């Protein structure tokens, strides 16, 4: 290589680096609130990550089309994490510097890493339906908000649903339930509540880990064929779900007896399997696929109708799209709630937004005006409870769409509360943190 | 002109054996280190520290470790991620199970544990080599992934399998801010860099290189293959283990086995190959290339207005093309380009 080429290459890379280091600072002057959007549109989990991201971005566009948050427009920037923790951390650091209001990591692994960082940077983390289950305890986790539900709620609701099918919780005695889980922090979150329930209700649990990303499950399903569990709980994500259902078809395990977590209950998981997936169930945190809800109609009109939509129009209102939209709604409502205290029409800081998220009061009336009537039940968070609601439903795939097949299920607080308290206390002790005092909650 | 070394005569063995025999090199390295230690902490923004500099320093350390094994001793390893994981989890266990364990000690003990595991998985290298050895070290990767996912003792019975550390300090000085973390990593890298450079110049380093170039000939002239290969595995895994511990403790703060998966091993191998096999300097170049380039490309594509999915795919494509380009144009890696540059400067302005 010639010296000249070498010099050109060096100059080029220097220019690239320079563009990296300079961060834009001018936008903070205008009335704009910055929302970082951590997504994965590539990689093994992309089929599920894309609809979530589309829903999230569409909701932001919708809010802007409606005049923003009391006049404050939302600016946003996507960052591709590919579901990798170190990439997520890099995204966090990059977007943090641009005045981030709130982060939604969309990965349990990234949530764990960011939980360590958020308190220092004073940026709240919304983990709607994932993340650390014990972070429901706001006294220990000041900056984490698993709004609307955690994996422990999901597991408890599922066991209750199964018990109902059997004719009561006492009928679970002696039954065998297999837990097929993604071998990562995400999948393992399911183990404590299921084991706790097993102790109380006297059923057997068989733990069957599946290595990420989850395409290799032959051995797992061989074990299921041998042990013939009465029910299978599926804690999967991405390609693992459709593989599991295909394996169930191959081994002849009845799909009616399979219950997925809410990340294993969306259209991309069952579509490829076709008729084989008929009868497969999944728990879902409040919302399901709601193509007829008012908010979906509004988005179709205001965003997609004006050619501004993200992603295909047919996917609007599907399960993961709804989840992305709902997650964005929590962030927007958090900011709006904060504005009620710190001044309407102002740009909120991370700390102020944190207060808003902690005092979220989405009652029925509010949900109706937002267009979420029938999609969600009321959610109200507090200092001690960062989750706000513990309701779930089970829906079933009929070959074409998801239909609700259960009533509203509420997780049993008498079982989960002590577990959350204990896990949060362990975290606080391990980290040598001081938990918040009641005075801290008044601020 | 700039690099003319006329008049720099060496009159003692000591002067002849310096790491940087040329005055200009000594000056440049001295200035670079002074800049890194005394200027960068005051001027660089936080993002640069957290997203680029700290990962770069730690990955350089890991690449340095791997380079000793692959570049100097010629033993191809695909288990680097595993040895990093062993370092990280061992250091974690030392720090949570032993009250008042100092940070540096637990990091180094993490390295010691990685050494043990590295030597264990290095034993097959006595009988097999090349591609076969690569596959054997792959076993380390799978075994370690399995162990840390399944054996709860290693993760201190954490229900999710993810572990985290906090309240880091060295001799009472907290390691909390990005600058402190950066300086800690820099100190580790400088110390290990000097140690490694001296090791490869010493008799053991020559044994490694003899082993790499032709093991039969090396054995004939009296080099013990067992000793040479296993020491290479030991030194390499030790450095890689410490890098893994730093990656977990300092960079991520909270991690799961996926942080040290097979991709990590591949990345490190690419770093060594692109940077330059058998070159200490090359490890740094390789790490910089692999860490910084995707981020630069990411930022550029986003700045140009592509959507994230396309940007991410584009990054992969450009990245792959660049690797192929480099391997064709300069198979000895970036370190070789660097030395060509120096040669040219030495002759400039009178090229032959």
From TrEMBL, chain A:
The protein's name: Branched-chain amino acid ABC transporter substrate-binding protein
Signal peptide as annotated in the record: 1-28
Pfam family, one: Peripla_BP_6
Keywords assigned: Signal
Start and end residues of each Leucine-binding protein domain: 36-398
Species lineage: Bacteria, Pseudomonadati, Pseudomonadota, Betaproteobacteria, Burkholderiales
Record family assignment: Belongs to the leucine-binding protein family.
From TrEMBL, chain B:
Keyword Cell membrane belongs to the record: yes
Keyword Coiled coil in annotation: no
Domain of life, source organism: Bacteria
A Pfam cross-reference name: BPD_transp_2
Matching InterPro entries: ABC_transp_permease (IPR001851), LivM-like (IPR043428)
Subcellular location field: Cell membrane
Entry membrane topology: Multi-pass membrane protein
Name assigned to this protein: Branched-chain amino acid ABC transporter permease
Organism (species): Sphaerotilus microaerophilus
